[in-house]
Structures are given as C-alpha cells and as structure tokens.
Design a protein that fits this description.
By secondary structure, the chain is of the alpha/beta class. 33% of the residues lie in helices and 12% in strands.
Amino acid sequence: MPRPWFVYIKSSRPLLKRTPLIHQSRPTAQTIIPSKMTRVLLTGGSGFIAVHVLEALLAQGHSVVTTVRSETKAQMLRDTFPNYGKDKLDFTIVPDIAEEGAFDEAVKSDPPFEWVIHTASPFHFNITDTKKDLLDPAIIGTTGILKAIKNSAPSVKRVVITSSFAAVFSPKIGNRPGYTYSENDWNPITEEEAIQDPPSGYRASKTFAEKAAWEFVENEKPNFTVSTMNPPMVFGPIHPKLQTLDTLNTSNQRIRDMMLGKMQDELPAAGVYIWVDVRDLALAHIRAAERPDAAGKRFFVTAGYYSNKELADNIREQLPDRASKIATKGGGFPEGYFEYDNSRTKDILGINFRSVKDMVKDTIPTLQAIGA
C-alpha cells in the first residue's frame, strides 16, 4: 500500500538542539478557555490518557459520549465526574473494539457528533497472543471506527487518533546521536518482527494502526479529516477512583516504584528519554480537533528530555522522608542521543509544556491516594 504523502517530505523547520535538563519556570496548568459546545464521541474513556481528555472536554463545556468496555467502567467514570448529567456525559458499551462492527451503533447520536477522539487501544505487555491481544484491537479498532463514521455519522468533521512515538521510533536503530526525529519519521517494523515479543507487538500495533488510518483517508476520501497524536512516555496525575497500584499506566509505574522503595540500589536506564505530561497531551487532542490547520497532520507531542535520575531527584525533593530509599546511582541521561523537533505541536496546537518538576509534584499526591 502507498505510504502517506507526508512521509517523504523533509521538514523545513530549524532543528532543535539538545539542551541540558534544566526546566524553565512555566505555569502548572494550561489555560482552558470555554469554546462552542460540541458533541464529541470519545473512545476508551476510562483509560489513562482518555480520562484526562474527558476531563478537559467537560471543563470546556462540551457534550461527551464515551465508549467503555462495561457498565462497571461507566459507573466508575460517573463517580469520578459526579457533577455532569447525561446531557454532558453519557456512555455506550463496546466490549471488544476488535469485533467487526464494534462501533457501528456507537457513532450514532442525537444530537449528532461533530468530533471523534479515538484513544482506545491496548498498552500493556500481559498478553498471550500478540496478534489477538495487541495487533487486532489496535488495527481493527482504528479502521472499524473510521468505517463506522463514514457509513453512519456524516456530521463528523474531525477525527483525532491517539498514536504513539512507537510509530515514529525504532529501538533497533539505536540512539542516533545528531539525528532529529519529527512527524516525518516512521518505525520500519515488519509483521515478522511484530510477533517476536510483546514490546515489539505494541510498537507494531501503533505503527500499523496509524498507517491504516492514513491509508483509509487516502483511499476512501471520507467527509472528515484525521489528525494523530504521537507521544512518547506519558507521565502525570491519575484519577484515584479509576486506578490501583497494580493497574497504573506503564510510565507511571516507575514513579510508583521509586516512591515504594523498589529502586534503592540503582536506578535503571529510562529506555526512551523523552516524555510528555498527560494533561498537555489531552489538551493537544482537543486543540487538534478545534483548529483547522491541524487537519491531516501528525503531531509529535513531547515536552522534551528527562531521565530516571531527574524523576528520582524530584521525588526525593517532594518526599524527603523517603529520600534514603531512592537510589542516587544510575538512571542518568545517555551519552549521545537523538534530537527532537516538536515545533509543529507548539506552533499549531499552542501547547505550553509542563516541566518534570511540576509533573512529579502533581502526580505524587494522586499515587499516595491509592497507597503509594
């Protein structure tokens, strides 16, 4: 299948040089300005990223229907946002997004939807069958909702899809010192590599699903535009009624483990050394739906560099009584690492990224609320 046109275009923007891990003082929250009320379908509403998208949509006055896998999940969200009635927050049950026609009824609404924000996709490695547990839900879930919108929701004009830096970057290529990653890059992972292990399966699921979305737009010429979000490691506050210490998103697990004294001897390497605060990522989804010049584009949504040492230093500062149980050895930034160009996210979406310090400060109390 032909690759999307933008893959072949070299960026004309100036490349960003790596700067030391010193964060400028920034506001601890983005300014949310109420906008015209829009009817929005949000998929996977109880997920870590999705619930922040939901919170921001509700704060802006939008009317949201979110898909969840069960009535239990729906009730958890009602309990998390008790001040919103059915006119502002409603639910539709989609037990398995990989089933044929899973979203056929979900996309129908009165009043009709104008935006769809598709976040539903697995991100965990507790799997037994890579194809069934990772590839199918991501790929079929994405193409399925696009087909359903085209066939049954002609009012939808904007679709925003949560992809990942995993669809941009391939760890087998290495750290590539001096190379600048941007929206023009794609992970070259193959179907054969996808089934080698769960991490490869996850990276493939995000890559194949996003490519399928762009190919759908190119081939089907729908009446809506697509934008995709490509975040790296996503940290930030959780909603305590929706998560436990055992069900945390993968990125936040390392903050949990540091807080619980599980990294006393030496800090591990971070693996991927770029990150974003979940609240900034949530706002990026909404602005991609709002802003006409975001249509038809990928967005590399990253705040920049971090390391496990930086996380640990900030946790010790916030929790001095636990400082002795958090290692000071290891976890630093590697010698020689790729650069990044996040100028499209800043210029078009206007995101003012939070610092690691602010993220850790805001995240710790929410993890303490569930026992960390």
